[in-house]
Amino acid sequence: MADTTAGFDAVLFLSFGGPDGPEDVMPFLENVTRGRGVPRERLEAVAEHYFHFGGISPINRLNLDMIDALRSELEARDRRLPVYFGNRNWHPMVEDTVAEMFRDGHRRILVFPTSAWAGYSGCRQYHEDIARALDALAHREPATATDDPILLRKIPQYWDADAMIDAGADAITRAAGAMPAGDVPPRLVFTAHSVPLSADRAAGPASDGGGLYSRQVYAAATAVADRVGHTDFDQVWQSRSGPPQVPWLEPDICDHLEALAAQGVRQVIAYPIGFISDHLEVVWDLDNEAADVAARLGIDYVRADTVGTDPRFIRLIADLIERYAEGGGDLRAMGCGDNGAPCRPDCCVPVARPSRVSGAAS
Ligand SMILES: CC1=C(CCC(=O)O)c2cc3nc(cc4[nH]c(cc5[nH]c(cc1n2)c(C)c5CCC(=O)O)c(CCC(=O)O)c4C)C(CCC(=O)O)=C3C
Ligand SMILES: [Fe+2]
């Protein structure tokens, strides 16, 4: 059994990954969608989004910037924990990073995931990444089994942290400042990545019918809206994929803009609450697609900043690391787990039809 009181000696910043050039785009997309039944046409369409930006996803640069800021923050706090970077779908791959950490002598590793949420894509899949990296390590370094055992502990979901709510509220206030003056306050629209309904239903307490991801997103949106004094807001979803006959969380942001225009709404602030940085889903799906739809409908549209740009977010990451680094923190907290073990039963472990959900989000 892992010693839960021992201090941690390194941090793994674990993210999604993205292509660094045009030749990376298709292999990256194949990694993302391996075994998931995403239609070829969807892959080709998404590849075009990446090609629009020279085949380079902004996500790697943004993560490296966040890691730089985090290193400075830890340094300022006199926490001498090295921060390593690894991804699920592109280089540096998590398997390589964990092997490097092992070779550097690290055996107690805290994992910070760049998703704040529950659910298969937002939480459980990060546990799978950790398990896969450990599996690869056991093959590359057979001594791991007998040696000083390695421990990777994933920090739990942080969507409800004050820093997330405050940073979101301020981003919306800045967006409102950039909006031309109107007769009525702009409509507030929160957006997050859609997931298949079956995947959403399969995470969270069975007594609540699952839906932990969508309920967290809605609760976070409510808290942010409250902070900016809006009693009214809309929760929408974006970037759906998968075959059209499979139901996903709705409404889609672009369909919703049409509905708002039909109701006479003239101004919209879109806040991407589901993402921590301005990666491709934000700069393409929101800043191009949704912005074009809004322009066609004659709606003034401002997309609010993600939390990645806010120093409070970096301090939050450092706070979480400090809390868990000395063996503190609540190990029963949602999404927390060691060495890729599944979350506790009412977190992201499938609660219904496990055979359909495990390993496939669509
Ligand atoms: C909930 C959620 C988050 C938020 C939590 C988190 O942040 O982890 C998220 C983040 C991201 N999704 C990203 C990119 C993609 N997601 C895809 C596909 C999918 N996402 C899904 C869900 C989520 N995704 C799902 C259910 C699929 C269907 C296939 C599958 O189950 O895997 C595909 C395949 C093509 C397509 O189907 O669109 C791509 C390229 C990038 C990187 C962007 C960049 O390069 O800057 C990021 C941060
Ligand atoms: Fe979880």
UniProtKB/TrEMBL annotation:
Fe(2+) binds at H193, E281. Gene3D superfamilies: 3.40.50.1400. InterPro entries: Ferrochelatase (IPR001015), Ferrochelatase_C (IPR033644), Ferrochelatase_N (IPR033659). Its EC number is 4.99.1.9. Its main location: cytoplasm. Keywords: Cytoplasm, Heme biosynthesis, Iron, Lyase, Metal-binding, Porphyrin biosynthesis. Involved in coproporphyrin-dependent heme b biosynthesis. Catalyzes the insertion of ferrous iron into coproporphyrin III to form Fe-coproporphyrin III. This is Coproporphyrin III ferrochelatase.
